[in-house]
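Reference record:
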Amino acid sequence: MSEQEKKERGRRWLLSLRRYFIFFLLMAFVISCCMILFLNMMMRTTGILLTKDYVEQAAKVTFLNVVLLSLLCTIIDSIRRKFTVERPVRKIVMAAEKIMAGDFSVRIPLNSGFDYMGDFAVIADYFNKMAQELSGTETLRTDFIANVSHELKTPLAVIQNYGTMLQQPELPEEKRLEYARAVTGAARRLANLITNILKLNKLENQQIYPAVETYDLGEQLCECLLSFEDAWEEKNLDIETDVEEEILVDADAELLSLVWNNLFSNAVKFTEPGGKISLSLKSDGKYAVVQVADTGCGIAPEVGRHIFEKFYQGDTSHAAQGNGLGLALVKRVIDIVGGDISVSSEVGRGSIFTVRLRRKQNEKA
């Protein structure tokens, strides 16, 4: 038996002894009071005078009864505590030790009947919910590390390979420029990945606090769309806009620009040359509804359920153009500003991203 177990056993004996004395004092007080009242009533009613020997004998019997009743109550209380306190606490402690050891799959069974946990069931229920949340967080952390490692490895491998080829002394100038552009592109992708990781980390940890201001949402949307003019002209895309005027919002303009830039970037990236991109801004009661539509490759239903997850890329053919963090940033920003985002899509026919934001009511209205 270990030293810790010996201490624990000694502590239990002391607790049992203390409970016994508590019951003993309680029983002694209650029974003594009852006996005194009983004897007084009997003497008044019957007129019998109690002798010293009779009182001493009664006191001894009463003392023995107090000892036995105290022992019986202690045993009953110990059994009660074993099943209603010690066993549930032991289950919770054992589960907590497994959580501390990194096993987030542990759950405390909420049994009924003889092994019912009583009031400890509330604690166990919250413990199970906590373990479930920790399990999900650990899964996300593991996936995040795996995905970051993969995303970092790809551009680094490109930089290393092309850097090695650039060292060839007789390399033609045309090839040298091609390899240099590949290194520059990989370095840019790596820089964008790190930037997006830092932004997402700050957003998720609430290290970026919205700087709320009132501004015209339509103007911001048009400015962000125009910043992609070179890209859409290069692919000969048809741009269609339907922007309602004087729709004001109270939000962080810089944060929302991340949303529009990511949505427009994806629309341009996934739309084939000669396709069409549409921007719509309408008022719907208390909300401003923004829709960004394209005639690109579309999204399958099983992919649509995961597109707002970190590093998820539904179309692997365009993986070299992104890192799967854009829509995760979009979703987090929309959550922070108190909006809502959804997507409807059909494979081969394009996608429509819809963002709903609470708008500022026009004072003239």
Notes: Residues 52-100 form the longest helix (49 residues). Residues 311 and 324 are 4 Å apart (CA to CA). Confidence is low (pLDDT under 50) at residues 311-323. Residues 215-360 form a domain with the Heat Shock Protein 90 fold (CATH 3.30.565.10).
